[in-house]
Amino acid sequence: MAITAMGKSPKTGKDIPIRIKGKHRPTLSLEKKSSNEVGVSRLTLGAKGIDGLRTVHGRVVEHLHPDLRWPLSIITYKAMSLDPTIAAVNNFYDMMISRADFKFVAPIQEDGTVKAEVQAATDFLNYCMGNMEDQTWQQFIAGVGTYRVFGFSIAEKVWTTVKRGKYKGRLKWKALAQRSQETVKEWRWDKNNPDLLTGVIQRSEVMDATRYKQTDFKGEREIDRSKFILFRFDPKKNNPQGTSPLDGAWKAWKYLNLVQEYQAVGIAKDLGGIPVLGIPVDKLIEAAADPSGVAAQTQSSLKEMAASLHAGDRTFAIKPILYDDQGKELYTFELQGITGSGKQYDTTEVIRQYQNEILTVYSASMLKLGQDASGSFALSDNMNNMLGFAVQHNLDILRDQINIDLIPQTLAVNGWLFEQEDMPTLEYGDVAPRDLDELGKYVQRVVTSGAMTIGKNLDQSLREAADLPQATYDDDDEVPNEFMTGKQSNAGEGEGTSGTGGSQTNGDNNTENK
């Protein structure tokens, strides 16, 4: 096998590539070279490695446990989503994300202006958002949120032509229709590039044959990759199914259900002890010898009665009154109490532990504050920040997929072909009102310390944050004096005794001396 190396030309003395055959090959040099000396002409531009995703006949088989492996995972995820703790978290996420103010924005150039053609395309995208025919934008957002249960969500792009108005003749979204995860049979990848997803096949087993009888649905249907947006949570190995957040909560949920069931049975059977039946040995032998005899039937009835005892309707027991020759009862029944210290565990505390583990997976532990006896304001602030980051992460997933998929395709089919720097983007606003108390403290500190000056832009931003009307300015740079209180805070100067508020001596009368 021949290889290529560098050698000196006998005529010019310059480095030239030479071909070396046979066993004598040059030793690779490990000395450092400048970037100009690297052989970039031989750089491989295409992919050489693989993502390593394990699949069988178009199905992903990454999970070791069958309950979390497709398609059985669908049943597991649907059961888990009915759990009150998980349902509460998902409802909270849906509520917070639905509060976000989504809009398409045009990029601003260095001179502070927006290109007219880019602005026109951006206006059309906002028109599409508000004028879908088969669903609303909020319904689309709610459908996307199902990836927090199943790990992924498919939204098929259904197009229609604008019939009238300013955008007549252009293609808009009729719907960004959700395609149920349980209809997914398998995924399709490119034959020449196994890492390139080309489509998804919906299966017919879950379809209503009568409903689709009059359509051209032939039992299975493939949706081309260009026809749908794929939203995924934590897509390790470029897994089209993503990773369901419920995977991390599965074990806690499983044990939680088990303990809750034991607790319910324990409450139902709370009779003050364990039912104990006393049966003579000869009757046991007789029942074993003749399973259809009277003794066997009597024992079977007594066992069934004891097993069905609980603190509801079955709080009584019927005991046969039979005596032996000495007048001693043949059958006895009593409730045997538990000796010693009793139970060494509290089922309520165990249930709370598993619920907290589930909430931790979702970064939503703050939802339990107020229900438990423990907690602090500092802990609440930290948890609130974590939950805020988690909500923002979900918003980023939605925004990024629309920016890289839906926007370029929508503009392209309508004749707008922009460079990346001119492409409009989807942006979202705050999902929760600003904490004005914290904002006020921050502004007070930076303004009074001289790190920031009060100008028109700051005044406008603060009024907007507080949802207050904007003021009219005579000067473009400074806030009019009549808008200022004329008071200066001496926070941080260290004068007077320690303390807060008006309790200081010769100090500042601010709420907190910060």
Describe the structure.
- The chain is an alpha+beta fold and 514 residues long.
- It contains twelve helices and 14 strands.
- The chain has helices at residues 72-81, 84-98, 116-130, 137-144, 147-150, 246-268, 281-289, 294-307, 347-361, 377-413, 436-448, 456-465, and strands spanning 3-8, 15-20, 55-56, 59-60, 102-105, 152-161, 171-179, 184-189, 197-202, 221-224, 228-232, 274-278, 332-336, 425-428.
- Strands 7-6-11 form a three-stranded antiparallel β-sheet. It has a three-stranded antiparallel β-sheet with strand order 8-9-10, with no helix packed on it.
- A hairpin with a 7-residue loop joins strand 8 (184-189) and strand 9 (197-202).
- Helix 6 (246-268) runs antiparallel to helix 9 (347-361) and helix 7 (281-289) crosses helix 8 (294-307).
- The N and C termini lie far apart (76 Å).
Biggest pleated-sheet summary: 3 strands, antiparallel
Give the assembly state of these chains.
single chain
- Strand content is 5-15%
Q: Which radius of gyration do the C-alpha atoms yield?
A: 36 Å
- Tell me the distance between the termini: 76 Å
Fraction in helix: 25-40%
Principal-axes geometry comes out as elongated
* Strand order in the largest sheet: 7-6-11
Number of strands: 14
Strand-pairing-aware structural class: alpha+beta
Report low-confidence residues grouped into runs of 5 or more.
Answer: 24-30, 373-380
Total number of helices: 12
Instruction: Output mean pLDDT.
Output: 77
The SSE order reads: EEEEHHEHHHEEEEEEHEHHEHHEHH
